[in-house]
Amino acid sequence: MGKLDGKVAVITGGSTGMALAGAQLFVAEGAHVFIQARRQGALDDAVRLIGRNITAVQGDAADLDDLDRLYDTVKREKGSIDILWANAGMGEPAVLGEITEEQFHHAFWLNELRDRKIRVNVLTPGQVATAKQEELFDEAAKAAFESLIPRGKMGRPDEIATVALFLASDDSSYVNGLELVADGGTTAL
After folding, report:
1. What is the C-alpha to C-alpha distance for residues 87 and 160, in angstroms, rounded to an integer?
2. Which residue among 21, 22, 52, 173 has its CA within the 20 to 30 Å range from the CA of 101?
3. Terminal CA-CA length for the chain
4. Contact 61, 86 (CB under 8 A)
5. Which domains does the chain have, with CATH numbers?
6. In this predicted model, what pLDDT tens digit does every residue of 3-14 receive, in sequence order?
7. Under 8 Å CB-to-CB from 41, ≥6 apart: which residues?
């Protein structure tokens, strides 16, 4: 029996890196996984790699029409979503001390979701060896990042996927409103 037997998961940005590793693990643990990404070729590769219990929907997680199409596909094929891993996206920094109460509540307040029994947690990965990282950083930059990690090397996508599995499964049923930082201890130094 898998930790996600019978669950329906949606992973945005799910065609590569950490999210692809998560999709593979979620399927291995019994879920049917819908992945969304912008590049159809990468989605096709991900579907071939995983092989079963996987549906790819091409689209941009920043486009509301694409998100509606993703939701409509999930609703039509499976009825509802049990797990959402919003992996695609970039953060917008705000200066500590200048964050308004309204901004804080908008980002973190969970009372609108409490009555629906929806838990919201944040998985913050540190430096992870992905294809995108290979594209962006030269060897010197990668070595500089690795020097900050206590174990001396980057994380792997499958290591982040196991943390996501914990948050997606009933193993974390008492975890809500948490930012779980999986960075090899970098922020602890």
Report:
1. 11
2. 173
3. 39
4. yes
5. 8-188 (3.40.50.720)
6. 999 999 999 989
7. none
Paired tokens of 116: 């629906």
Q: Identify each DSSP E strand in the chain by its residue range.
A: 8-12, 32-37, 54-58, 83-86, 122-125, 179-182
CA dist 131 to 6, 30, 170, Å? 31, 27, 31
The pTM (predicted TM-score) of the whole model is 0.80
| Coil vs helix vs strand at 131 | helix
Reading phi first (left if > 0) and then psi (alpha if -120 to 50, else beta), residue 86 is in beta
pLDDT at 105: 61
Q: Which residue has the tokens 């919201």?
A: 120
At 19, the amino acid letter reads A
